[in-house]
Design a protein that fits this description.
Elements: H1 15-27, H2 39-49, H3 64-79, H4 104-109
Length: 111
């Protein structure tokens, strides 16, 4: 959530310009995909469709490569559509994984 406009580094900027600057800075950080929206709207979209965006296209199948190719083709068409913004294909491979091995004796000792 943004601070009140009078607390922004440059209060003369419009909200759209501030969001554009935030998106530009966030794109430089590797390994993450950001979407800027209203918190309640994002949560509601995620609960309904399992995605955070207002519109989602889900591609299903058994083989990863053809699915990814189709998803990228669909995204290219959507990016060329007038009014479409922030079109992205969800990353489903190469994500970080945290493996935790529990020392059962130690955890039992600590209750």
């Amino acid at each position: 959530m943004l601070k009140p406009q009078d607390q922004w580094p440059d209060p003369t900027l419009s909200k759209a310009l501030v969001i554009e600057q935030i998106e530009k800075a966030a794109r430089r950080i590797p390994g993450n995909s950001y979407g800027i929206t209203q918190p309640i709207q994002m949560r509601f979209n995620e609960l309904l469709a399992g995605v955070r965006g207002d519109l989602a296209v889900k591609v299903f199948g058994d083989e990863f490569e053809p699915l990814l190719q189709s998803a990228n083709q669909i995204a290219a068409i959507l990016r060329a559509t007038k009014g479409a913004t922030d079109v992205k294909v969800e990353q489903i491979e190469g994500l970080s994984v945290l493996d935790i091995t529990v020392d059962k004796a130690e955890i039992a000792r600590r209750g």
